[in-house]
Frizzled-10
Amino acid sequence: MEKFSGLISSECSVHARFLLCSAFAPLCSEQVSGSVSACRALCDTVSEDCKDQLKLLPATVALDCGAFPLRAVRRLCMRPPNASELEPEPQPPPRWPFRDPELREHGCPPAHAMSPTGECWPACGQHARYTQPAKRTAEVWMNTLAWLSLLSTSFALLTFCAEPARYRYPERPMVWMAACHAVVATAYVIRSWLGAKAVSCAGGALAVDGLASPACVAFFSLTYYFTLAADAWFANACVAWYLTAASEWSTEALERAAAYLHAAAWGWAGAWTAAALALRRVAADELTGTCGVARAAAGALVGVPRGALLLAAVALAAGACPGIVRVRRALDSRGARRVGRLAVRAAAGGALYLLLAAAATVAKLLEARIAESQSEVPPLGALEAGPAEGSGGAWGGLPVCLGLACGVAAGAWAWSRKSGAVWRAALCPPRKAPCCAPPLLRPHHPYYKRPLHVSRV
């Protein structure tokens, strides 16, 4: 209070003492939760009456009226005892910080439309938060990675179909992981054919509540479910390697336990997908034109399930390393080299997938945090310069692109010389000699001599 002593002694406002006392010694009562200070309207009045005296205060001292409660939004505050009862109530702030001429008839700012929930959200086909070049760039990257993911996973699945016996446990979970990412990539390819409006729009606005649009629900269900299922199968691959190396399980033993791995992977993804749909945490994104987890629930529905799976995979992989070293020492040189090559190949593919999946998860969480810290609408005057691309725009399409890059890495385990040999044998089969006679008895063989008599025996 000593810093404001000059303000009080000047008697520039009869309410100055009441305002300062309510700020430094607010009302506290057992019947009220929290402290109660003066109303913001009183602070604005004192600031206007004492603006000359406020300029004389030290630079470190300021009167911030924004910290006082506002009666118009039904927040409890105090009025001075000598205030007039006929004092008009302050007008409530507008829903959007725009000037009145900028508001449309439906009460939404430009490039926004009224959603079925009664809120103003970016209109379909308009550029509210992102510019057209930013959307085009995100579209190109998304479509390119979707096709690369689809080609990579398709190659892996077709290689498995050509030689199923080659991919037994503990490598079999990689096949299911590739299949899951193939479904995700297919969903993005279909979305590129249908267009952003067909997937992300509900009426004239983005699908704020994703359940209002069947296409949005279908796209979210496919991508979210199979992304979590792919992460679960990645964790199952680490489980299989751990049981093989550390507990010395055979391939047959793992195949007998495969039903439990299937139940864990598909059940985990199904439970989280059902929770997201039941809580209605599905929303469309303007930049990518897709539907995903709402940003407010990204930590609970993306960070928790994916983070838990990735951490479990890291722990299991670390536990399998000593077992692999022990197995290599127990084998001869040829077997040790074979196990070493297999382990290095699995470790390289697993590390690549782990880094991309972790980066996608972190990018999604950062995007949600940046979006929460920023205002839902551009600041006043930003409409004159066009849509604003803040720091959130740099993160907007990154989680989607990293997720599609995981699909490319999911099929990388099939990129080997042995797979090339399988495809050469399938596409260019060698000519086979007639099987009716041994080689030395064929007419065109250099040592062939026609026998005089050949008995039936």
In short: Residues 112-377+393-424 form a domain with the Rhopdopsin 7-helix transmembrane proteins fold (CATH 1.20.1070.10). The two ends are 122 Å apart (CA to CA). The chain has two domains: 2-73, 112-377+393-424.
